[in-house]
Amino acid sequence: MLLEVNLKVRSFLLVDSIWVLVYYTTSTQIHIAAGGEKMNFESNLPIYIQIMNLIKTKIVSGELKRGDKLPSVRELSKELKVNPNTIQRAYQELEREEFVYTQRGMGTFVTENTDTIQNVKKSMATGLIDQFFSEMKNLGFKNDEIKEMVSHWLAKEE
After folding, report:
1. Fold entry, domain 2-157
2. Which terminal residue of the chain has fewer beta carbons within 10 Å of its beta carbon, N or C?
3. Is 34 helix (H, G, I), strand (E, B) or coil?
4. Span 12-46, pLDDT tens digits
């Protein structure tokens, strides 16, 4: 099923030594698999990278814990309706990045290394913040205006 939806992405931003939660909304097409998995099948980004990003997001958000077993290649390919080779490539790249590890005959598991997970989490957050500021600059906002808007939003939320 293909849906046009608005995604809310949240990130944290440091403003005057206060961490700010930032929501960034985009509109994109989402593929929802039978298991409820949401995939952005964007033509400008290879599907295996999109699957890697989905798995990374689940890990850094805590939905998948350290040491958890990932679905088999066959299971995930069926759920996401993609070729098993695509899932295998995503798993291989995640293993190359030391984000997961494979035990022969047992499956693929989330890394036990907390530092790796935290580094990826910070990297993903930095990417969101960079994208947020880039888009705000494209809209013509200056740093002081962005800071004022974020501060106003924070005050409203308290």
Report:
1. Arc Repressor Mutant, subunit A (1.10.10)
2. C
3. coil
4. 555 555 555 554 444 333 444 444 555 656 678 89
CA atoms within 13 A on the CB side of 140: 0
Closest C-alpha to 100, from 82, 86, 113: 113
The CA distance from 157 to 37, in Å, is 30
**Residue 90 to residues 97, 133, 135, Cα–Cα distance (Å):** 11, 29, 29
**Residues 12 and 19: beta-carbon distance below 8 Å:** yes
Q: Find, among 61, 59, 41, the residue nearest to 50 by Cα.
A: 41
Where residue 140 falls (left for φ over 0; alpha for ψ -120 to 50; beta otherwise) is: left
The answer to whether 79 and 71 have CB atoms below 8 angstroms apart is: yes
Query: Can you tell me whether residue 45 is helix, strand or coil?
Result: coil
**Taking each helix axis from N to C terminus, what angle separates 114-138 and 47-60, rounded to the nearest 10 degrees?**
110
For tokens 């608005």, the residue is 6
